[in-house]
Design goal:
mainly beta; 45% strand; 16-stranded antiparallel barrel; 458 residues
Length: 458
């Protein structure tokens, strides 16, 4: 990259950092911390990655409440006072994206590349509603698309008791994104990267479970953690229409998924903590979904496509005051039976498979300085109608979904409620090939991306 480009990027990054460092008082912290009186780093290795305490808080329906020190205000950002009755919070993300090369590409493919942008602003209701009832509900404004819509929603009723002499945390959840209810940071809704560029192009293939239904469906499920070891969850999801339209308010109805009946979701995991104070913890698990979806959202009739996703995941964490380390792995196998898409010429094959693998390792020093290395890989059946769009940049001349690469990220938390990060994505393969993947001369590494973000919670 030319020297002037690096100088320009560093100058813009400094502007973002200085602006947000001055944005709010240092005492501002998120709603959960105000409600519980706990430091953010008690529940998070580094937000949003949960520790064992954070997982217990989520299992308990976001209801843990510190003892009130005086009359509780309706709304407050003061962590030293009584917890507010309405647990409100907000988030702002400002970012800068530089793609390795946009030469010969249409400018519409890279909106706001090499420019400062308000990437996202969100409002949250996050915390206790009543003794056994709580919520995490988010509304977000997309600063790139200039549009607001509902984001992740997770409503919970929870309790604790003994089942067959085992301590049990259990409850029910109503949410709008399969895996958003999960307590680990291995599943798609809460997995790494926790923030990514809205400007950069991304591979054109992903499993249905990895974002294909988020903020488009509504589901009800039951979950339990038995003996602190066995975690289980079952749920059913349907299209968020009619009386449930609030769960996808503001989304594009013309492209939202429309399901045929209920999609069944399941989750099983075994976890264990050891060492003084439980400084070590590990998990191994499996999860999946079985869904039938109409290929045309505007014409939900006729044959459907069936997606059966099965995932396996694992997580390890080591947490002390000075050193924090975590590693996560996730692998999803998807079997597609495309009766609907084949009949409408939207697919070339009746049956396809798609596999995704994601892994990352994170280290934080003194809860302030972090580094993460992640690897991702997608592979599966070639399908000309699905993947070979004939378009430059986003197409695949080989009709293959195969993509892979590395993500490197450096993080600095000058305050507990702020993250300033530099992230670099390096592609080895993109939409089926390393070189000339789109048939117009574009190479995978041309999509390598430098992404700078200042992320403020208050």
């Amino acid at each position: 990259m030319p020297e002037f480009a690096w100088r320009n990027i560093l100058q813009r990054s400094a502007v973002i950092a200085m602006a947000l460092l001055a944005a709010t008082p240092a005492r501002a912290v998120p709603a959960f911390a105000r409600q519980t009186g706990l430091e953010c780093t008690t529940c998070h290795l580094s937000w949003p990655e949960l520790t064992s305490v954070g997982r217990e808080f989520k299992l308990g329906g976001y209801t843990l409440l510190q003892e009130a020190r005086g009359e509780r205000p309706w709304v407050s950002l003061n962590p030293e006072g009584p917890p507010p009755i309405l647990p409100l919070a907000a988030m702002v993300q400002a970012s800068y994206t530089h793609t390795r090369t946009t030469a010969a590409a249409d400018a519409s493919e890279f909106p706001r590349d090499n420019a400062l942008a308000l990437q996202q602003a969100s409002l949250f209701y996050a915390g206790r509603i009543a003794e056994h009832l709580g919520a995490f509900a988010q509304w977000s404004y997309d600063g790139i698309a200039h549009h607001g819509a509902i984001d992740n929603v997770d409503l919970r009723a929870a309790n604790r008791s003994k089942i067959a002499s085992l301590d049990a945390s259990y409850g029910i959840t109503i949410n709008n994104n399969p895996t958003v209810s999960d307590i680990y940071n291995t599943t798609p809704a809460w997995g790494f990267p926790f923030a990514s560029s809205s400007v950069a192009v991304s591979p054109n293939a992903s499993t249905l479970l990895d974002g294909g239904l988020e903020q488009q469906v509504v589901g009800a499920g039951a979950y339990a953690l038995l003996g602190g070891t066995l975690y289980a969850e079952v749920a059913a999801y349907r299209t968020a229409d009619g009386a449930f339209s609030l769960f996808r308010a503001g989304t594009d109805k013309s492209t939202d998924a429309v399901l045929d009946g209920a999609a069944r979701y399941w989750r099983l995991a075994l976890q264990h903590a050891w060492g003084e104070g439980g400084i070590h913890s590990a998990m191994i698990g499996t999860y999946g979904i079985d869904a039938r979806k109409f290929p045309d959202s505007l014409d939900p009739t006729g044959p459907t496509d069936r997606f059966r996703d099965t995932g396996f995941d694992a997580q390890y964490q080591y947490i002390t005051d000075r050193h924090r380390f975590s590693a996560q792995l996730s692998w999803i196998h998807e079997k597609q039976t495309l009766d609907g898409s084949l009949a409408s010429a939207g697919a070339s094959n009746l049956s396809n498979v798609l596999r995704t693998f994601k892994g990352k390792a994170t280290y934080y020093y003194d809860r302030q300085y972090g580094a993460t290395v992640g690897y991702f890989r997608t592979s599966g059946s070639a399908d000309d109608a699905l993947y070979n769009t004939g378009d430059p940049v986003t197409g695949s001349a080989s009709a293959s979904p195969n993509s892979s690469g590395w993500i490197y990220e450096l993080d600095w938390l000058p305050r507990r409620d702020m993250r300033i990060a530099a992230q670099y994505t390096a592609y080895r393969r993109f939409n089926g090939a390393s070189t000339d993947y789109d048939g117009f001369g574009r190479n995978a590494r041309d999509n390598d991306t430098l992404y700078l973000i200042a992320w403020l919670m208050f």
